[in-house]
Amino acid sequence: MSQLRPLLSRLGAQAVRLLATRDILERSWHSRSSGSPAAFPSSPGGGSSSYMEAMYLAWLANPQSVHKSWDSFFQKASQEAPRATPEGRPMPSSPTTNSKLVEDHLAVQSLIRAYQIRGHHVAQLDPLGILDADLDSFVPFDLITTMDKLAFYDLRETDLDKEFQLPTTTFIGGSESTLSLREIIRRLESTYCQHIGLEFMFINDVEQCQWIRQKFETPGVMQFSNEEKRTLLARLVRSMRFEDFLARKWSSEKRFGLEGCEVMIPALKTIIDKSSEMGIENIILGMPHRGRLNVLANVIRKDLEQIFCQFDPKLEAADEGSGDVKYHLGMYHERINRVTNRNITLSLVANPSHLEAVDPVVQGKTKAEQFYRGDAQGRKVMSILVHGDAAFAGQGVVYETFHLSDLPSYTTNGTVHVVVNNQIGFTTDPRMARSSPYPTDVARVVNAPIFHVNADDPEAVIYVCSVAAEWRNTFNKDVVVDLVCYRRRGHNEMDEPMFTQPLMYKQIHRQVPVLKKYADKLISEGTVTLQEFEEEIAKYDRICEEAYGRSKDKKILHIKHWLDSPWPGFFTVDGEPKSMTCPPTGVPEDVLTHIGTVASSVPLEDFKIHTGLSRILRSRAEMAQKQTVDWALAEYMAFGSLLKEGIHVRLSGQDVERGTFSHRHHVLHDQEVDRRTCVPMNHLWPKQAPYTVCNSSLSEYGVLGFELGYAMASPNALVLWEAQFGDFHNTAQCIIDQFISTGQAKWVRHNGIVLLLPHGMEGMGPEHSSARPERFLQMSNDDSDTYPVFTEDFEVSQLYDCNWIVVNCSTPASYFHVLRRQILLPFRKPLIIFTPKSLLRHPEAKSSFDQMVSGTSFQRVIPEDGVAVQAPGQVRRLIFCTGKVYYDLVKERSSQGLEGQVALTRLEQISPFPFDLIAQEAERFPSAELVWCQEEHKNMGYYDYISPRFMTILGRTRPIWYVGREPAAAPATGNRNAHLVSLRKFLDTAFDLRAFEGKMF
After folding, report:
1. CB neighbours (10 Å) of residue 928?
2. What tens digit of pLDDT does each residue of 671-707 get?
3. Helix ranges restricted to H, 825-914
4. Domain ranges of the chain
5. Is the omega angle on the peptide bond into residue 912 within 30 degrees of 0, that is, cis?
6. Taking the model in full, what pTM does it have?
7. Is residue 630 classed as helix, strand or coil in its secondary structure?
8. Is residue 211 predicted with pLDDT exceeding 90?
9. CATH number at 589-759+808-842
10. Can you tell me the distance from the alpha carbon of 160 to that of 157, in angstroms, rounded to the nearest whole number?
11. What is the DSSP string of 302-329?
C-alpha cells in the first residue's frame, strides 16, 4: 500500500470523482443519470481518495469482492506500476509517470461515457440539415473536435495511437479488450454521432443499458444482406408510389400524405416482422391521420379498391351512421406475415382528429386482448402507437398513457412508440411548441429508451426498429423510435407552408426523395440494377391502376369493411340477425341470497379485517336475511349474477375498490399482513367469470380512454369506469365527445362502456355536485319533435336507434336491472349512470328481493303507486322527477298531507326518452297540472331536454311547468344555508297548488 499511496494522492480530484461515479452507477447504487460529489460514499475522513484506498485494500484481500470494473482497473495499474529494485525499493522514475497513466485510463473511460450519455446531441439527425433535433446548436465541449476532446480530458495528440484497456461498459472493441485511442474515438462517433442518436443512459437498470450498448456498439451489427436491402427498397417503392398515385388521381383532395417520412411504412413492417418472429400474433395500432391511408394499404393490407372508393364523392355508405373522413377510419385484418410465414392479426383503431386521444384506447384494447387470451406477459399481443412530434410533446394524454404502462391492472407489457418527427406542428415552429429538447422527453419518466434516427437513412431506421421490437419483447417495456424527418407538403395537401416556414420549405423543395437516394445507393453498390428498380415501380403502379379500375365498379361503399373491432357471432344466431328483444333482467331468489351471503363474509381463513368493516359486513348480512338491498349490495348482486353467467366484469377508476364514499369495499385488506387482500366477488361460484376491480392512477382522460378500448375488444364483458365525483369527467370530455357519443355513427362501432358518475346537490359547494347531465342529454340523438309509433318492441328498438343511454336511478333495484340489461340487450350501447351520494345510505333508498327476482325488469319510468292512484281524476298535480330529489318530494308531500292531490312519477331512464310511458302517465291523471321538478339549476340538469319532448307528447295542449333552482353560472352554492334556503323555496313551489294559476305557457 505504501507504494501505491503516493500515486493515489497525486490523482486529480476530477479523475477520482469520475472513477467513483462510474463504479456507483454500474452497481446502480443510485438511480440517477449522473452523480455528484455529495452522493459519493466516503470514509469517515470524508475524502474520495480514502474511498478509493478502501476499494484497493478490498481488492488486495479478494479481487472478487469489488466490481469487475475496479478489478480491471487495479490489474492494469499493477501491471504498469514501476518495477522494484532487488532491495524492494521502487526503481527511479518520473514522479508523474504512474499518475498520468491512471489519469489517462480514467480519461478514456470518461470519454466513452460522454459519448454514451451525450453523443445524441451531435448526431446528424435532421435530413434537411437546417435544424438540430434537440433544438440546440450547442455541441458539448467534451465532444466538439478531436483536439478539444483531448484537451478537455488532459490527453495529447501523441496519446491517439496508444492502446487503452476498454471498460466492461462498452462493446466497441468487439472481441478485443484494448484499442488505440484513435480507434476508440472513431468507433464511438460511428455509433453515437451519425444517423442514430441514442438516449438510454438515464435508465437505472445496468442490464438494460448493457443490452442497448451491445446492440449498437458491437462492430458490424448494422449489416444487411442483399435480400434484406431489396425488401427494404420494395417497401419504400410501395410507400412512395402509393402517395404519388393518390396525388395524381385526386390532386385537390386532402389525404394527409406521408411524403417526407415514407420510411415509416418499412419501419412499421420491420417492427411487425420482428415481433412476429418473437411470437407475437396480434398487434393493435393507433395513429393520427398523417400517413393513415398508406398504413392501411401497405401495412394492414386493406384492399386498395376499398380505399379508392372513399375518394368518390358520389358514393354513399350503405350502413347506418354519419361515417367519417377516410383518414380517420380503422381496420381489422388477419393475414400471413410473409417474412415469418406466421399468422398475424392487425387492427388499426379508428381515431378522430384529436391525435393522441387514441393512445389509451389502443392500450385498453390491447390489455383486453391479452386478458382474453390469458397472455399475462404480453407474449402474444402487443401495441404500436404512432405519434406526431408536436402532439407527443404537447398533449397531456401522452403522459397519462405512459403512466399506465407499468401499473398492474393497466400494463400492456410494453409498447413501441414511433414518432413521425416532422419538425413542425401545423404551422408552429418546434422552438415555439415545446420547452423540452426533444419531443420525446416525456418518455423518460418511465425509463423508456429513445432511439432518434435520421429518416433519410432507411437502413439505420430499419435497424433501430428491429432493436426496438426486440427490446419490447425482451424486457416488456415501452420504447420510442423518433423518426426525424420532414413534411414535404403543408399540413394538408391544400395548405401553403411557405407562408410560415419559407426557409425550411425552400430546402424541402430541393430535397432529394429518400427512395431515389436509397435506390441510387443500391444501384451503385450493385445490389439491384436500374432496370429492376424501374420494374418494381411499374409493378406497383400497375397494382394501383387495376385497383382503381375495380373501385369504379363498386356501387355501394360499406363502412363495415372498415371496422377495427369486429365481434364475430355476436349480432347473429345461426346466421340470422338477433331479434330486437330483451329478456327479463331479474334472477332467482336463491342466487340473490347466495351473493348476499358471500358479500357479507370473508372467504379466506385467518384474514383480519378492520373493525369498522366488520360492522358493514354484518349490516349486509342483516339486509340479505331481510331480503332487502341498499345501493352497494344491489351492485354486488348485479355483478355477481353476471359473473355466474360467464360475463367478465371490470370496474376501474380512482378509489373504486373501496368506493369514494366508503360504500363498496370490494377489496378487503388484511390489517396485519401487508398487501394481503381478498376479493370476495371472485369466490362466488366454482366456474364463474373473473372479476377485476382496480384503482386507477389519478387520471380521467387516459383511464376512461383505456376502459373504452377494453370494452371495444369483446361484447361479453361489463366494463365500467367510475368517476371519483361526477364532474371529474370534465377532463375526459374528449373521449366522451369523440369516441363514446359518436363512435357508432362515425365508425359503426358498438361499445358497451358504462360510466358511473356520482351526482347530487348536497350543499357541499359547486365542485363535485353535478355530473353535468345536460351535456350528455344535449348530445343524445333522439328527436324531440317526432312522436314515435309505439310498437311491441318499442323499448328495445328505441335503445337500438339511440347513440347512448342516460339513466338516473332512484332505487337500488333500478340500478341492479339496468346493469344487467346492459349485457342482456342484443346489441351494445354506452350507458351513462348518474349515481347517488347521499342515497347510498338513505334509509328509504332500499329495494326488496321481490323487485329483483326472476320475471322482473328495469323500469324506465316508475309511476305513482300510492293514494293518488285510487282517485286519479282528483289529482291536482302530477310531478315528474328523476333521481335523488324524489325523496325530498316524498317527504315534503307527506308533511303537507297532499298524498291524494299530488302524484309523483320518476324517470329512471331519461334518454332515449320514454315517450310511451310518459304519455300513459299524463293520460292517467287528465286533470292534473304537469310539473317537472329538479334540484339542478334551470339552465342545467334535464329541463331543456325533457320540455320539448313533453310538448310533443301533449301536442302542446297542456304545459309542463318548471320547478327547481333559478338559472346560475355555478352548479351549486358553496354555502350550506343558501343551499337549504333554495331547497325550501323550490319544494314550497312544487306543492303550492296555486303557483301556476294565471300563467301563460
Report:
1. 22
2. 999 999 999 999 999 999 999 999 999 999 999 999 9
3. 885-896
4. 5-84+91-217, 226-562, 589-759+808-842, 861-990
5. yes
6. 0.89
7. coil
8. yes
9. 3.40.50.12470
10. 6
11. --HHHHHHTT-TT--BSSSS----GGG-
